[in-house]
Amino acid sequence: MEAVGIIVEYNPFHNGHLHHAQQARKESGADIVIAAMSGQFLQRGEPAFADKWARTEMALDAGIDLVIELPYVYATAQAADFAKGGIALLDAIGCSSFCFGSEQGAIEPFLNSHQLLTEHAMAYQQLIHEAVQTGISYPKALNNAYLSLVGNGTDFADLTQPNNILGFHYLEAAQKLGSSITPLTIQRIGANYHDPIQAGLPIASATGIRDAFFKGDSVEELSAYMPKTSIASLKKAEKEYGSFGSWEQFYPLLRFTVLREGPERLKLYAEVTEGIENLIYQSAKTADSFEAFISLIKSKRFTRTRIQRMLTHIYTGFTWQLLRSFEAPAYIRLLGMSEAGRSYLNLQKKNIKLPVVSRAAELNDPMGKLDIHATAMYLQGMGSTELKKEFTTPPIYRG
């Protein structure tokens, strides 16, 4: 059996995600689709809208065959490390190809961009260093350096676009890993990454869907943008928790944590740099909402996403020391499978490069224990009394 891999968040699973999964299967000719999905906290430094089990249900009910968890250390990382973790898992589980959605819509520009930056690696790093010294954000410095090398060339990927950036890092990760996995991309259609919902368009961004809900729309009112199975899973999750995940929901606990730790301890947490711990601490003293809090901290140098990742690590207790202790995924955590997915695991078990773990009790290494801890912190933020849900929830099966 051939498998195509996709790296996802499904926050929540919508019609654009369904299109991606269907096209990945079609373009690759694979028998099954494997999704490496973020757990309870996400790449933009946010708690997931719905927990990983609800999102696994959405994926399986929409035709995904295997859902495996992208560990916390990669799921909450900047783009290069997010890609590194996802590609390592897809390679380990035996995917012959991986497919990502992009604004570019063709794979050749990504291959050309990767070759260009590989051939001019030293010059690229020097340009980045010089740009950062001017006080601009690191993502902006990367883009400026890249544009300097590309010049007027038209056969390269546009790395100002969020999905293109991730796609480039997927290729880069596969090359560094020495993997033979084949890269594929499909054109992203419908709404852009951060676009609000537009009436009449069947595909909305996950950001737009979440924003609409938090502004008062019910789950049912968003049904035009998601498969019916996603609506059913979200309604079940809403009944279980009484709400959906957001920083506003988590802010009282985050604020308590920041004030308890103080600046000297805040700087021990991953991604907290350049003295920003003092501003975080002082802002928590005055801001009574998350939006007010982050508005006091963000700047051209410290983007909202970068700050949110810091805050995620502060909230979960993830330190620089822990971050630097991990080099690669140590296991494959199985969250759910279809009948075809189960057949694939049975047929490929001798070729899978990492242990496949189906229950939390089997996660005895530091990376696995971190995932268990992150889930407990997520459930606490959601007001759940079932803090051992990680241990009582088996992989979800759809026969």
From TrEMBL:
The keyword tRNA-binding applies. ATP binds at residues 7-20, 101, 163, 188-189. Its main location: cytoplasm. It is found in: Cytoplasm. Its EC number is 6.3.4.-. The keyword Nucleus does not apply. InterPro entries: Rossmann-like_a/b/a_fold, tRNA(Met)_cyd_acetate_ligase. Keywords: ATP-binding, Cytoplasm, Ligase, Nucleotide-binding, RNA-binding, tRNA processing, tRNA-binding. It catalyses: cytidine(34) in elongator tRNA(Met) + acetate + ATP = N(4)-acetylcytidine(34) in elongator tRNA(Met) + AMP + diphosphate. Catalyzes the formation of N(4)-acetylcytidine (ac(4)C) at the wobble position of elongator tRNA(Met), using acetate and ATP as substrates. First activates an acetate ion to form acetyladenylate (Ac-AMP) and then transfers the acetyl group to tRNA to form ac(4)C34. Belongs to the TmcAL family. HAMAP family: TmcAL. NCBIfam families: PRK13670.1 (NF010191). This is tRNA(Met) cytidine acetate ligase. It comes from Planococcus wigleyi. The lineage of its organism: Bacteria, Bacillati, Bacillota, Bacilli, Bacillales.
